[in-house]
Specification:
Elements lengths: L9 E6 L6 H11 L4 E7 L10 H11 L1 H7 L4 E5 L3 H7 L4 E6 L2 H17 L4 E6 L9 H9 L10 H14 L1
Parallel strand pairs: 1-2, 1-4, 2-3, 4-5
Helix pairs in contact: 1-3
Length: 173
Amino acid sequence: MSEPQNGVLVGLYPGTFDPVTNGHLDVIGRAAGMFSRLVVGVAVNAGKAPLLPIEERVELVQAELAAVNARAGVQVEVRPFDCLLIHFAQSVGARVIVRGLRAVSDFDYEFQMAGMNYRLDSGIETVFLMASERHQFIASRLVKEVAFLGGDIASFVPPLTRERVLARVRARG
């Protein structure tokens, strides 16, 4: 990995965040302490047919990060992107891509992506953070499924995100 520019090591935590979960916030909070600057990249990812539009996902991640920023003593930047991840990493000056792992099943896909990204730019490393034990089972896809089926998602997402998800679910009713 190349040296940080001007002593600033920039990390990038990308995802769709549809919706942002307590697991995402856990990884962001832990990653924030590892870098001079952390950028959370919210992927447009129209192929996944997101429940929440990109503007709302960015807004929710920013709102939910208030507590993380206060604890970490840094300002985590949130930016949307709609391009190749490695190009976005280059555009924000990231030297490290942070990926969260919940289970062994995540590893195969993430390992392939890390290898591809390394081939595209060997100056940008990928690091993996294991989800905290209490968040290992949380996936945005499952949160949406539980919400659509009338289950309680309060323990999986922060309150504002819960309100927004449930409003979208009711609207699709």
